[in-house]
């Protein structure tokens, strides 16, 4: 149970849109009306994280990667995490003010019962695969829940030491390295582990002869047998604008409508169907690659 925003901006106006949407993730974490209908606590306050890749013009990419969870500390961890996320979203917004191009994943976590806590378990998870044509880094964030036992068994590790999302990231990286299969195929293949929902953002950074080649992959889907209120909570939306595109959780979409981000800025939102998508610099838009 998490809130998620992922997007790519190819113009200064698009970068500022990502900054505005990032602030809505922080608002959604503080109170989520969709979560309030299915849970006794409407906050996503079990840690946060983001990966931001930005640049001006043809300059090199500037990366900021941050994760935090105050769990185990002396103060109230929920309050500290929400305040930390608010500051992080504000910082992301300031960095995007000066960007001409940017990739962003920002995530607010509500941990499943019994799932590991702490900064090491905050999203997005960073993993690496050595491919035949270069090194690939993956930054993966997830909203939903997966069958941990099957993922752990495939990796030969003990399930209780990991979150389901971390196991997913490790499994995808390992299979990419062993088989060379493209990420869209691996995301579709791992849908077999879904327990509730499979809303995923993966920023890939490929180092090819010293040149960084980023791309953003998205997946959205959920089980058909979920209750209607649960489906509304897990529903994600694809957004597209003249300068940016990406995917956002239902609550972020709800807040974007309420605050006039959609419409006034010409940003369109549409429900993400069961599928795998890609946003890359050469495409400048959301490309549907596979069905789930």
Automatic annotation (TrEMBL):
The record's listing under Pfam families reads:
GATase_6
Q: Which residues cross the membrane?
A: none
Q: List the molecular function annotations (GO) for this entry.
A: transferase activity
Sorted alphabetically, the keyword list is: Glutamine amidotransferase, Transferase
Report the residue ranges that make up the Glutamine amidotransferase type-2 domain in this protein: 2-292
Q: Which InterPro entries match?
A: GATase_2_dom, Ntn_hydrolases_N
For this protein, the record's PANTHER family field holds:
GLUTAMINE AMIDOTRANSFERASE, GLUTAMINE AMIDOTRANSFERASE YAFJ-RELATED
The protein's name in its UniProt record:
Predicted glutamine amidotransferase
């Amino acid at each position: 149970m998490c809130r998620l925003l992922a997007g790519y901006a190819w113009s200064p106006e698009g970068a500022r849109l990502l900054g505005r949407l990032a602030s809505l993730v922080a608002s959604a974490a503080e109170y989520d009306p969709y979560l309030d209908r299915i849970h006794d606590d409407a906050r996503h306050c079990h840690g946060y994280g983001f990966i931001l890749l930005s640049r001006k013009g043809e300059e090199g990419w500037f990366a900021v990667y941050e994760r935090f969870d105050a769990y185990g500390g002396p103060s109230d961890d929920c309050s500290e995490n929400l305040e930390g996320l608010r500051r992080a979203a504000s910082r992301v917004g300031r960095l995007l003010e000066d960007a001409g191009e940017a990739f962003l994943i920002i995530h607010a976590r509500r941990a499943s019962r019994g799932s590991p806590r702490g900064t090491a378990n905050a999203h997005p998870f960073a993993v690496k695969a050595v491919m035949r044509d270069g090194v690939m880094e993956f930054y993966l964030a997830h909203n939903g829940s997966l069958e941990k036992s099957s993922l752990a068994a495939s990796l030969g590790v003990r399930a209780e030491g990991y979150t389901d999302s971390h196991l997913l990231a490790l499994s995808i990286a390992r299979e990419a390295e062993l088989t060379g299969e493209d990420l869209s195929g691996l995301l579709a293949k791992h849908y077999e582990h879904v327990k509730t929902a499979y809303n995923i953002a993966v920023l890939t950074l490929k180092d090819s002869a010293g040149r960084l080649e980023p791309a953003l992959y998205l997946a959205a889907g959920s089980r058909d047998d979920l209750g209607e209120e649960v489906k509304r909570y897990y529903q994600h939306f694809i957004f597209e604008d003249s300068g940016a595109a990406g995917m956002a959780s239902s609550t972020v979409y709800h807040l974007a409508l309420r605050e006039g981000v959609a419409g006034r800025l010409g940003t369109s939102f549409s429900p993400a169907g069961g599928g795998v998508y890609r946003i890359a610099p050469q495409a400048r838009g959301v490309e549907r690659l596979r069905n789930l």
